[in-house]
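Many introductory courses stop at the sequence. We go one step further.
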Amino acid sequence: MDNKEVKSAIEKIVVPKEKVFDAIDKGLKMSGQGRKIKKKKVLAGSSAAAALLGITIASGFVNPTMNKVLANTPLIGGIFQEFNDSMGVELANQDAVTELNQSLTKNGVTVKLTSAYFDGNVVSITGFVDEDVEKGHNEKGEVSFDMNFEHNKGDNDPWLNGKSTDIRKVKGGYNFQWKMEYPYKSFKENSTLPITIHNINGIKGEWNFDIPIQQEKNSTLVIDQEQGYPDDEVKIRIKEILTARASSSLIYETVEKYKDDEIYILKAIDNKGKVYRFGNGTSLEEAALEDGYHSTARTKMTKLNSNTTSLTFYPQLSVADPKVQQLLDKKSFTLKSKRLNLGLQVNDITKKGSKLVIDYQFTGLSKELSKHQLDLFENNLKYELLLVDKEYIGEIDPENPVPPKNHSIRMNKVKTIDKKTAHFQSTFDLNGEEKIMNFKLENTILQFDFSSFIPAKEVQPFTVVLPVGMNKQLK
């Protein structure tokens, strides 16, 4: 077969576009881009699927049909290939990405913004910063932006919740992509997003941009079906699915008896067996009512097929246990979990010069914990035993529990005495970086959170039937 025949044969190959994008999305999800609404959840795994594009291109046989799928223009499509952003690739293919050419130089550092898109729940902005950024404080190859959106200040900026930054070294500097979850309940089809970069790698300057973000109106599929879990005292209601050009978004409500419990969705599978993945969540509403704590969230999901008739959702529940505490005015005592049938038996407390040693063991743990789980357990203990001056315990904000500086110690060195009996020792350095001024045992409280040691559990999947005529709405 000569080259002409080979080329002709390759041209005839049908590229499964949806499967390519689904594989890439799945790989990215499994590489650690988990959901985050109230608590951090990490899903670990392989990102091999995300390498699919690189394998195809590096092979030397690039199907022209595949090229059309991957990018509509070399500039815009290429940047999204660089960042393994399948949504961006598809939007570029649909001419749904806004090309930008906004450039500013401050204190010798040039920032250029090159593209923006808004699809479903996701806003993306790509850009370039020149190599003079390496004159800053960061290590070579590292680029960090101190920035805000819409003239907000500091960490109170809602656009920063769940924001991610991806960096690629290129000739003359660095390409970057910012991805944000749209933080508001209602969408504006056309708007301007002001951006202020305060410093880059410690180099100060006010790089100010106004970025147009455009989104066509989503199609809305109203579902409004509820699943309850009486034993766990939680409920979940699937409310709506919004579908944009390249993605869908799920809006769902949860009701929990205990405020800090969290039920969230791992995945969904439709009636054809297609798996739908979910991204980070944007909190839309929260309210405390008679039947519990209500939370409504919107989360990115794989684009919903128009011929889908049902979806089976797979939820997971993370249980919160109220923190327990004890004044260290006695050598031994037991802390008991209020909800989890667990206990922390403190056997002995010894002060040796500038070191405080606490000997303890856990009761009620599953005997089936693996070696890996026990290793994680031991690692978490380095951070989860908190010593606090009793006069300052009331200053810890439950919504943002930052220990009071110079009046608390969290870090400790853990020694395993016996893994089989979950027996450990923690040594606190009283003269270390963290300290308690005028430390006295009888004025110090030990605080502990059992829920940080209990993995989330999968609960019973449930199926919702989608409304008849849905395919007309999604086409």
